[in-house]
Amino acid sequence: MLSIAKHFNKTLALSVLLIAISQFNYGFDNQAFAQTQAMLAFDEQFGEYDHKTGTYAIPTRWLSLMNGLPFIGFAVGMGILDPW
Questions:
Q1: Do 50 and 57 touch, CB atoms closer than 8 A?
Q2: Residue 10: other Cβ atoms inside 10 A
Q3: Which of 2, 22, 20 is nearest to 12 (CA)?
Q4: How many other CB atoms are found less than 10 A from the CB of residue 41?
Q5: Contact call for residues 82 and 76 (beta carbons, < 8 A)
Q6: Cα separation of 75 and 43, whole Å?
């Protein structure tokens, strides 16, 4: 029977910790931006006024761009770093 302790070392533990923290940071970043977009003050500052409802709203094309462009940036970054 293989011993797990034989394959587990400090480098592996730090690598797993780094990946776990990176995943947490990625989710935290996306959620923080989504909550910012949902704030009324953000809508009033950057949105368009709708006279029928009397409220401000950010057009869906801008919301789509703000939420989708980071993924294009990730793809470009992966393409740049691919040779390494």
A1: yes
A2: 7
A3: 20
A4: 9
A5: no
A6: 29
User: What does pTM read for this prediction?
Assistant: 0.59
In the chain, alpha helices (H): 4-7, 10-38, 40-46, 60-81
Distance, CA of 42 to CA of 2 (rounded, Å)? 56
Rounded to whole angstroms, how far apart are CA atoms 46 and 66? 12
Q: For 10-23, how does the pLDDT look when each residue is reduced to its tens digit (9 = 90+)?
A: 999 999 999 998 88
pLDDT at 57: 94
